[in-house]
Write a structure and sequence with these properties.
- With 439 residues, the chain is an alpha+beta fold.
- It is built from 17 helices and ten strands.
- Helix 4 crosses helix 14 and helix 11 crosses helix 14.
- The chain is globular and about 90 Å long.
- The two termini are 49 Å apart.
Amino acid sequence: MKTVEGFSKLTKQQKIDWIAQAYFSDKSAEIIDLIQKYWNSDAQLQKLHDEFIENTISNFYLPLGVAPNFVINGKTVTIPMVIEESSVVAAASKAAKYWSTRGGFQAQVLSMEKIGQVHFIYQGETQKLQQFFNHIKPNFWSVTEDLTHNMRARGGGILDVELKDKSAELLGYFQLHVTFNTQDSMGANFINSCLERMAQYLKEEAHVYSEFNAQEKDIQVIMSILSNYVPNCLVRASVSCPVKELNGVEGMTPEQYAQKFITAVKIAEIEPHRAVTHNKGIMNGVDAVVLATGNDFRAVEAGVHAYASKNGKYTSLSHAQIEDDVFTFWIEVPLALGTVGGLTSLHPLVKFSLGLLENPCAEQLMEIIAVAGLAQNFAALNSLTTTGIQKGHMKMHLMNMLNQLAATESEKQKAVEYFKVQTITHHAVEEFINLLRNP
C-alpha cells in the first residue's frame, strides 16, 4: 500500500519505516540503515537540519570545496563552492591562479533594485483607475511603515510604486509594480509582506472611492508576490590584460588564442543551442557559491536565464573583445542575494562559508559570485578552444568511475598513473580494472 494518511503527523522514524516497507520491502532493513547513516551524530545539529523543511528523513550531502587565489578588486579571496560535478572547483581554481598574475578580477555592483507585484483585475475606465492610483499612491509608504521600519533603518525600503496597464494582453489585468532595496537581506518575506499589505489597502480604498461605480469598486486581487526577475539588481565582473600576456597556449600565438576565444564567445551570443550550454557553465560557478552561502539557487537560475533572454532571444551572459591590443572578458548578471536572514544565521556551514569570505555584505557577495561565474566560463572556453573539454573533465571524473567499480586504493593508484596518457572512457577504465583483477 503506497498511500498514507496523516504522514506529516508521523514521527521521523515512523515515516522512514513506512517508506522502507512500502517501497523497499525486500530490503527494508538495509534502506533504514542507509537513511540513518546520513544523520548527524550531534543530536542538536540534526534537529536543526530536520527543522529546515517538512517531512525530513535524512540529510543529502554535497561536497563543499574551496577555490583559492582569487584576486577580486585587489583583495585575495578563497571561495567556497558546493557542487557535485567533477572539475568545477579545479577549473575555477585554475582560472583564479591564471588571472591573479594578470591584474585579477574587477567587479562592480551596478544596481540593487528588487521587484514585487500586486496582480489585480479591474473592470472599468482606465483613466479613473489612474486617478485613483495617483490619489492613494503616497499612502503605500505609510500603510507599510511598521513592516519597513527596520529595513529603512538599514538604508533600504520601498523605492517606488507604479501602476501598470496590462489589459491589452489580459482583459482587466493591471499591476502595482513595486521596487525595493532590501540591503543585505534577500528580502523575499519582506517584499511579500509589503505587497500583501498594499493589496489589502488597494481593495479597501477602492470600495470607498467616490469616483468609482459599483463594478469599479470591486477590484479583484489575484496574487501578491515578489519577482525573481531582477534586471536592475545587476553586477558586472571582468578580466583584462594586454593580448601579448595571454601566453602559455601550445600551438597558438597570444593573438591567435585571443581571436579564437572571442569567436567562441560570439558563437554563444548568436546561437541559442550553444548559449544554453555556455551559460550553464557560468552557472556551475554561480550556483556553487550561492548554495555554499545559503542563498536560493532556483531563484538565481530563473532570474539569470530570463535576463539572458531579455532582448527576445536567448544569448550569452558573457562577452569578450580586443581594443587597443587589450583583451577584455566580462559578464553582467542579475543576482538577488542576502547575507542576513534565512539559512545564513542557522546553517553552520553557511556561517562558515560566509566567514571564509570574511562576512561580505550583499553587494560584496554579488561581486564574488559574478567572479566565480566568469572564472568558470573562462576555464571552460579555454579548454574548448585549446585541448578540448573532455581531457581535463574526464581526468577529474576518473575517480568517480573507479569508485563505481569499487576499486581498491592500489587499483586507483595504478589507474591514475595509466590514464595520465590514455583516453579516459568508462569502458576503458572498466577494462583496465578487470585486467588488473584478472591478468
